[in-house]
Design a protein that fits this description.
Elements: E1 2-5, E2 10-13, H1 21-34, E3 41-45, E4 62-66, H2 76-89, H3 97-112, H4 115-122, H5 125-134, H6 144-151
Parallel strand pairs: 3-4
Antiparallel strand pairs: 1-2
Helix pairs in contact: 2-3
InterPro entries: RNaseH_sf, Tc1-like_DDE_dom
Domain Tc1-like transposase DDE: 10-99
Protein name: Tc1-like transposase DDE domain-containing protein
């Protein structure tokens, strides 16, 4: 799991052997702690079963925004994982779990080593717009009006 904090150009990731609601809570805790005091993080989530609003309920500096179904093109982290697979992890055979974790960690570090690349891949005009509108509210899914904003882009 990974996130990019656009305003501070900071990247955070959690490498885990599994994904579930507890891993998501740990990631939300990591994001909450990385968010500067006085700031608010808007976390874009998709429809994965562990992407639920209650995983961020205890953090007052986070808002989750759930993407519409079947819209990976709206989720910047999908482009990040695609880049990592294409440039660092494709056509490889790993000897076991430890090597996978090590290589995924190195791939993440390689990706974030060029901040301009990260900013370009992770910044979206609609995220800034929605973030500014929603940061003061908690756990609000997209409205029909916001969906028309995407459809008219």
């Amino acid at each position: 799991m990974g996130i990019y904090l656009v305003q501070s150009a900071q990247a955070e990731a959690l490498v885990s052997p599994f994904v579930n609601k507890e891993a998501m809570r740990q990631h939300m805790s990591q994001i909450s702690q990385a968010t500067p005091v006085g700031r608010h993080a808007v976390v874009i989530i998709d429809g994965a079963g562990w992407h639920t609003y209650d995983t961020a309920a205890e953090f007052n500096n986070l808002t989750l925004i759930k993407l519409p179904p079947y819209s990976p093109e709206l989720n910047p982290i999908e482009q990040v994982w695609s880049w990592i697979r294409q440039h660092c992890l494709s056509n490889r055979v790993f000897s076991g779990y430890e090597e996978i974790v090590g290589e995924v960690s190195k791939a993440w570090d390689h990706f974030i080593s060029i901040p301009d690349r990260v900013t370009k891949m992770c910044s979206r005009e609609w995220i800034v717009k929605i973030s500014n509108d929603k940061a003061r509210s908690a756990y609000i899914p997209f409205t029909q009006g916001e969906m028309s904003y995407f459809n008219n882009r």
